[in-house]
Write a structure and sequence with these properties.
Strands 1, 2, 3, 4, 5, 6 and 17 form a seven-stranded mixed β-sheet that branches. This protein has a five-stranded parallel β-sheet with strand order 8-15-9-10-11, with helices on one face. Strands 12-13-14 form a three-stranded antiparallel β-sheet, with no helix packed on it. About 25% of the residues lie in helices and about 20% in strands. The protein has helices spanning about 15-25, 75-80, 85-90, 95-105, 180-185, 200-210, 210-215, 245-250, 255-265, 265-270, 275-285, 390-395, 400-415; strands spanning about 5-10, 30-35, 115, 115-125, 130-135, 145-155, 155-160, 175, 190-195, 220, 295-300, 300-310, 315-325, 330-335, 335-340, 345, 385. Helix 1 crosses helix 13 (about 400-415) and helix 6 packs parallel to helix 11. The protein is of the alpha/beta class and about 450 residues long. It is built from 13 helices and 17 strands.
């Protein structure tokens, strides 16, 4: 007889890794996690030395749900004899590179994670009251089946590259997710252009700016945004990343939810103020010697298309740009282009097996319950929980590392059918709507 897990989690990024860490030692939730990569590695192409995680260390994989959990970041430091070094480091944030090392440490100690297993199909088995998960080993292509009452979709996101900017050699035109792999090649260009805004664009621009004098390349930064904005860094402002705001956001109509996402874009996607200070400080000091003729920073500018350059420009590519606020179009030469154009949800092909059975809010966004289950048209007991493609339903909890722990608390409680991890109440000082008095 086949073993039936309480759930199978598909994909092991930080979100499902947190879920795995919170359930590894539980008797009430037997969950297996499968990942096609050979080991855990979080955005290795953007592990630029000296860049920090944008959330505090307390928003690790487990602490906000269980501060005593052995997979906490502080216990990682303790076991690596780094606790005093971190104490003297005297910061609430941590290097992104160390966060990745911490996650690797956790994943190597979990019993419920299997790497090198690519899920090729998921099908419902109503007679058995479970799902069948088919996975193929990336090492020897052998196939194996797993069975589970529920599925947890954690396939994350993939680079979002506009169609008009696709099809060029990666060593010339690349996404920020590949930056560290191609960094030396990119710096061989005579002209480098960074396209996009937000933290990733800022980190890449700063890294290139530091080495510009040695590389002697022209450096340009174009962003469609109307400004280069810092992230919200005050206590009240950050309360939108709270359980109360997630509940408030979830109960809004879809139109209002999408409008709220737009209104909160600078809070959610802004740049670390300290990084912006570093960039400005470097620009200021470098301008003492001479005007910054090799540096261009321009907002309100979209890069719409790209084509090979001509001999007159002496550059490999010609960017077709528009200063959209003034409606002015222009061409701009470049040898290398780095796209900080964000990410989009990665929905696996097997999910199409269920499209006709689930409810949709619009043509792209499926309906999701408050505890992160896809809403099926029939009242089935076997659920598909999703950590992917939920920005429209749960807002800031979709991509925030700290709120991912809260999400996992709700999922664990739902699967177990009882409260394993209590959900925080009155976690913030403000309220987001008037409470009924009677």
């Amino acid at each position: 007889m086949n073993k039936v897990y309480d759930a199978v989690g598909i994909g092991i990024g930080p979100f499902n890794l947190s879920l795995a860490a919170l359930t590894n030692d539980l008797q009430d939730a037997d969950i297996l996690f499968l990942e096609q990569e050979a080991s855990f590695d979080w955005h290795p192409g953007m592990l630029i030395e000296g860049m920090d995680l944008q959330t505090p260390f307390i928003a690790d994989l487990v602490t906000l749900a269980d501060p005593t959990n052995r997979f906490s970041y502080l216990n990682y430091l303790h076991e690596h004899n780094r606790i005093y070094q971190f104490y003297f480091f005297n910061r609430f944030t941590i290097p992104r590179e160390e966060y990745n090392t911490y996650c690797k440490w956790v994943s190597s100690r979990l019993d419920n994670c299997q790497f090198g297993q690519r899920v090729t199909d998921v099908s419902a088995m109503p007679d058995e009251s479970c799902y069948k998960v088919t996975a193929r080993s990336t090492e020897d292509e052998s196939e194996r089946s797993y069975y589970a009452k529920h599925i947890i979709l954690g396939t994350g996101s993939i680079p979002n590259i506009p169609e008009a900017l696709q099809g060029f050699p990666e060593e010339d035109i690349t996404h920020t997710s590949r930056y560290m792999y191609l960094k030396n090649t990119l710096k061989q260009g005579n002209s480098i252009t960074v396209v996009g805004s937000g933290q990733s664009a800022s980190e890449v621009f700063y890294d290139l700016l530091q080495d510009q004098k040695e590389g002697a390349y022209d450096l340009t930064w174009f962003t469609r945004s109307s400004g280069i904005f810092q992230k919200e860094d005050t206590g009240l402002g950050k309360e939108v990343f709270s359980p109360e705001y997630v509940d408030y956001f979830y109960n809004l109509p879809l139109r209002d939810r999408m409008e709220s996402l737009e209104n909160l874009s600078t809070i959610r996607n802004g740049v670390d103020p300290k990084l912006l200070e570093k960039i400005y400080e470097l620009l200021y000091n470098r301008s003492i010697e001479s005007p910054l003729q090799q540096i261009t920073i321009q907002t309100n500018t979209a890069v719409n298309t790209m084509e090979p350059g001509d001999n007159s420009q002496n550059r490999a590519y010609s960017l077709q740009c528009e200063q959209w606020q003034k409606g002015e179009k222009f061409t701009y030469p470049a040898d290398k282009v780095i796209l900080a154009t964000g990410y989009k949800p990665h929905l696996p092909d097997w999910l199409e097996n269920f499209y006709e059975y689930i409810e949709w809010e619009d043509e792209k966004r499926f309906r999701v319950t408050a505890d992160y289950r896809l809403v099926f048209k029939d009242a089935r007991k076997n659920q598909i929980y999703t950590l992917t493609n939920i920005e429209h339903s749960h807002g800031s909890s979709a991509t925030n590392l700290g709120l991912s722990v809260l999400r996992n608390q709700k999922i664990i409680n739902s699967i177990a059918g009882k409260e394993i991890y209590p959900i925080p109440q009155q976690a913030v000082f403000q309220q987001f709507e008037m409470k009924k008095l009677y």
